[in-house]
DUF4468 domain-containing protein (Larkinella bovis), 561 residues
Amino acid sequence: MKKPVLIWLAVTCSVAANAQDLMTGPLAGVSTQLQPVKTGNAQFIQKIEASQPNYRATFSVTKTSDKGKGDESTYFLNLSDLDISTVTYKVERDVIAVMADTKQHRKFVRYSENGELKNLTDRVKLYADNPDIAKALVESLKKVIQAAEKSYKPTRTPDTLDELRQWLKTNIGNEAIGSDKYEQALTFDYDNPLRAVFRRSEVGAKGSASSETFSFNLGDLALEGLQIETKGKRLELSLVTQQKQKLMGYAKDGKLDNVVHTFEVISGDADKIRDIAGAWRKLIPLAVKQLESRKPVFATMPVAQKYLESSVTSAKTNDRTIEQALKPDCICTYTRRETYNKNNTEEVYEFNLADLAEKGAKLGVDKELYTIELKTRDNRRFIGYTKNGVRQSYVSTLELAADNLENVRYMSQAVEKAVQLCALSRKSPVPTGSQQARLDWIKEQLPKDLGEKEPTTYALATDNGTCDLKLTVTQGGKKTSELVYDLALKDLNADATNFDVDGKNVYVSLVTKGKEKLVKTHKDGKPSDYVHTVKIQLGDIEKGRYVAEAFKQLIRNCVSN
């Protein structure tokens, strides 16, 4: 409740008693110096009103022109926000302005013109009609600020996590700022006290409303991002996740829309937003510590596998259901059956965990469900993909789904550990003994009748020892054709020998040194063109990987001989 200063000084009541020690003298001095100021074409009438608590006050300045037109400017603030070093006066034509700025020029002063709320400001401006009064007003304002600094104490907030949660839940509420209204609520999950939801609805001057919902874990927040900013007429307290990770679910008008890293609590009162910030400043370290204590340690492959397998569960929305299962061995299979608008889709992905990027698990949103995208190293198309029983081209990414963010909280860490362990445990099946053993192993891997319309068979034979080979490619269909390559391994480049993917197919490429056309070919028994590259099609990525490795070893041993 506000009272004019002079009346407030005269009344002996509890309000006066509370404020008397610190504020009575300084405020009385300011009130005395706020005299009417007459200029050449206008007059200023000024007054100060004190509020409870006693460090808050309202300055009003009414300017009336010689034609009778009046304009009132009003400043409402916590006097301790003013910076003593900025209090000064300045001649402005036929009047002297007395000014005080806020500390660090923070726009914490509520300002209105003729009763209409304007943007927050960082300055209070008063007037005097002679230098003596201006100097006296400057000194009185400095005393007021000093008294307010001693008097102002932020609201004492609790110290325990549970009490802080309850305090924030109670104190974050609706705000009316000018013609705008904000409905705000912070709630917590009963089963997981670290899980929170912040809802905010904004109703504009024309009555239009929009709602936003942020779901997050208290332990994901960072003190570094906790800051108060001014946005026009309102103050916003930003809460940000650690390293600005996108770990907050964001819903617009009730529909999941995105994952974000920040949200804002709104207020029109600097003291209130400061108190709320103080509570968050206490709560965040406690929540981070508690979440850290619950964090699983993926020290072994079985632990990572168990988490990954148990985290990938059914995900549902009103019109969408995804049944999914992950078998997280190093050679991994992900099966996904989705029903959406009465359409059914089944997808199967097969891949080697060691082929995934260690930091490749990325959280996102798709049609009101959370997604966890997994991608391969260097975006190589090493993931086998089948849709509705039909084999598709290899892909470089896949998406897991979740309707609860907490279910997949540690997905990226589990994937990272599994990728590392699979890479370390990867063992090559290529024989390490003789050239003949490697050659025999390659022969066993070469496909028989690969393909549907035109089945292709590969056969490898020695021509003169293990360094001169003949590769026969027989292609069936309506007409059978045969292509024979004479491979002199000493002419091949081991470093250029590799495997790759082309659409649905995996190939091992054998390339000559300098890509010279040194490989003689015979087509259907007749000599044909020399070539520099020979491609062998394999049935899957793993065969392609190790057949390429075996050929590299064969070539290197032949070159060294």
Notes: Confidence is low (pLDDT under 50) at residues 1-22.
